Structures are given as structure tokens and as C-alpha cells.
């Protein structure tokens, strides 16, 4: 669950409180979509060489992929699942945050934006 998400209005049309209504301050960690995708692929490749080697792991089948196959698989999973979740559930909550920190590819904070209250 993303705590900054709002709920759809109920049929009666009156606003319903959501978790973030009770926050005094919220922080959103942001990064460019291409950076997020690259981080995901890199993490997938790291897991392929470590955790995926456990034969009991659901992900074990990925340990046998070549580098090109692993990159293609990770990119496909990113597009189908993670990017869809980002667009539908995460990005729409960014404007609700009090503070937005934007990270670069090296994980260093590049910009800080504080919303006026």
C-alpha cells in the first residue's frame, strides 16, 4: 500500500479520510523512470547470480538465463508489472507529498522540492 494514495469517492460522494490526511509531513523519493528501470534490471542481474541459485526459489529458473536473456526478461517484468504499478499507483501520489527528493542514477539526491503549506 502506498500511504499517499487516496481512495475513490464512495457512491454518496462525501470525502472519506485516508491515512495521509493524518500526516503532518510526508516524503516522496523520486527518480527518472529510466533510472528506476536500470536499477531494477541491475538488481535482477544481481539476484540471478545470488538468491536465484537456490533450487527451492520460485525465481530459480532465471538463474540459468544468459546475460541478454536476463536483461530482456527483467525489462519485460519491469514494463509489465513495475512500470504499470508506478504509473497507476505511485506517480499520482507525488503531488500529495510535502517534500520530494529526486535521486540520480548514483542514488545521490539531486533536487529537493518542498511544497508550500
Could you please describe the fold and organization of this structure?
The chain is α+β, with helices and mostly antiparallel strands and 117 residues long. It has one domain (24-114). Helix content is 34%, strand content 14%. It contains 2 helices and 3 strands; from the N terminus they run E-H-H-E-E. Strands 1-2-3 form a 3-stranded mixed beta sheet. The longest helix has 24 residues, at 67-90. The protein is elongated and about 50 Å long. The model has no long low-confidence stretch (mean pLDDT 91). Keywords: Kinase, Transferase. This is Pantothenate kinase. GO terms for molecular function: kinase activity.
Distance between the termini: 25 Å
Main sheet? 3 strands, mixed
Number of strands: 3
The count of domains is 1
> Please, how many helices?
2
Give a nutshell description of this structure.
With 117 residues, this protein is of the alpha+beta class. It is 34% helix and 14% strand.
Entry keywords:
transferase, single chain, Pantothenate kinase, 117 residues, three-stranded mixed β-sheet, alpha+beta, 3 strands
Write the layout of secondary structure elements.
Elements: E1 27-31, H1 33-48, H2 67-90, E2 99-103, E3 109-114
Parallel strand pairs: 1-2
Antiparallel strand pairs: 2-3
Helix pairs in contact: 1-2
Amino acid at each position: 500500500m502506498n500511504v499517499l494514495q487516496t481512495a475513490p469517492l464512495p457512491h454518496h460522494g462525501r470525502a472519506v479520510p485516508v491515512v495521509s490526511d493524518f500526516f503532518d509531513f510526508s516524503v516522496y523519493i523520486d527518480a527518472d523512470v529510466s533510472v528506476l528501470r536500470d536499477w531494477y534490471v541491475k538488481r535482477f542481474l544481481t539476484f540471478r547470480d545470488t538468491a536465484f541459485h537456490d533450487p527451492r526459489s520460485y525465481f530459480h529458473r532465471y538463474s540459468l538465463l544468459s546475460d541478454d536473456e536476463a536483461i530482456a526478461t527483467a525489462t519485460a517484468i519491469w514494463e509489465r508489472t513495475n512500470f504499470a504499478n508506478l504509473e497507476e499507483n505511485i506517480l499520482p501520489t507525488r503531488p500529495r507529498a510535502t517534500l520530494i527528493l529526486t535521486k540520480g542514477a548514483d542514488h545521490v539526491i539531486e533536487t529537493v522540492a518542498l511544497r508550500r503549506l
